[in-house]
Each structure stands twice: as C-alpha cells, then as structure tokens.
Amino acid sequence: MTIHKFTLKATKPTAVRQIGYLLLVGGLLVIFVAFLGCCGAAKEWRPLLCCYATCLMVILATEIAAAIYAAMHSHMFENDFREILRASLRLYNGTDSTKKKNVDGMLMKAAWDKLMIEKSCCGVDSKMGEFNESGWFHLTKGRHMFPPACCPTDGNGKLKPVCPLTSRHTDGCYAKIAESFQELTSHFKVVSWTVVLIALIQVFGIIVGFWLCDSITSEDDLF
After folding, report:
1. Residue 209 near residue 37 (C-beta atoms within 8 A)
2. Helix 173-182 to helix 74-89 angle, to the nearest 10 degrees?
3. CA–CA dist 52, 35 (Å, integer)
4. What does the pLDDT average to over 81-102?
5. Are residues 67 and 106 in the same domain?
6. Where are the transmembrane segments (predicted)?
7. Are residues 104 and 173 in the same domain?
8. Whole-prediction pTM
9. Residue whose C-alpha is closest to residue 159's, from 140, 168, 132
C-alpha cells in the first residue's frame, strides 16, 4: 500500500466532503421547517402547520434511526480504525541511520515512534509479526521483531539500539488510543444530553404544531 492510498483510506476526503454537504443540507432543512412553522402560526394556516409538524416527525425519526444504526455498527468503526492502523504500520520504513530517501515512509516512522514512546505501546496490538511487512523489517533483514521505539527508553530518555522481544511494551497502541477516547466520555455525556434536549424540543414542536393545526377551525382556513 502506497502512502497515497493510505492517506485516501485514513482521511477519506470524499467522505469528509459528503459530511459537509450533509450538514449544509441539514441546516437548510432546519431553516425551511422553521419557516413553515413561523408562517403557519402567523397566518394560522393549517396546511403549513401540519406540514411543519410532519417534517419535524420525519427529522426526529431519521435521527433515531441514525442513532440506532451507529450503536449497532460501532464494532465496524472499531475494526475500520484498527485496519487503518495496520495499513499505516506497513509504511513504517527506514531506520535512524539510513538516508531519508523515502520521505513519506520516514514521516510515518516518526509518527509511529512518537506514538509508541508517548503512549508506552508497541504496534497495533503488540503481537509478533506486526512489523514483518514494513520497510523497517526488510531493511534490518528481519534481525529484530520490534523497532527500538517499542521498548522503554534508557535513563537519558533515548531509544535503545535494539528492542528485545521480552522488553517490549506489552500494550498495543490501539488499546492506548481507545483509552484516550474513553477519557473524553465526560464530553460525550454533554453531547448526549444536548442531543436528548434537542429531541425533546422537537417533540414539543410536533405537539404544538398539531395542537395549533387542530385548534384552527375550518372556517378560519377559508380566510
């Protein structure tokens, strides 16, 4: 896998643009629905009010369906992220003593080294053979199973020349990254409660919309 293919897989710019378009369409939809409710209430026109309440119901149902889908397929997102990490590990090229001909590979190596040193982890899952497809493994002719960054630094904070099998960090970087995300659960709780509040406001808007629609008599509808 080349660095270009990995970048496409990891960042997925097309998906990012699609999310941006989706947010834009969602914003326009909110403005349109709010316009329906405002005009329907101001003019006391039942068709607009009914359309407003119906649109809110559709939006709420879509949000609930999206939440259920995300909850049911969360393991797929985890697997995709793990595969992205494995794909990037194949681009772990070069050694500290080689010339930096492959700039992309050296950048990937530097990123992985920084991650493994700061998080005290090794590879994706700290398993044998994870680095076998990397350029680093071929440059070292398979003499070592794990790079120096997989082992604790010496007393001066520098990497050791080699990383013995028994001295490597036993935790994988995937687990360490997952732990970092779990530390943000307090922020996720705030987001979750905000979503619940928005859903309650939508339910209130649906009730008020149908109530206004029902309260307007057919005679008022003629004017």
Report:
1. yes
2. 140
3. 9
4. 71
5. no
6. 20-42, 49-72, 190-213
7. yes
8. 0.54
9. 168
Determine the Cα–Cα distance for residues 34 and 24; give it in Å rounded to an integer: 15
Number of independent structural domains in the chain: 2
Residue type for position 179: E
Q: Half-sphere exposure of 73 toward its Cβ, with a 13 Å CA cutoff?
A: 9
The model's pLDDT over 45-86, given as tens digits with 9 standing for 90+, comes to 888 888 888 888 888 888 888 778 777 776 677 777 888 888
Distances (CA, A) of 126 to 151, 157, 189, 218: 11, 21, 31, 72
What's the rounded Cα separation, in Å, for the pair 183 and 15?
Answer: 27
Cα gap 107→98, rounded to integer Å: 13
Q: What secondary structure letter does DSSP report for 143?
A: S
* Contacts by 16-25, CB closer than 8 A, 24 or more apart: none
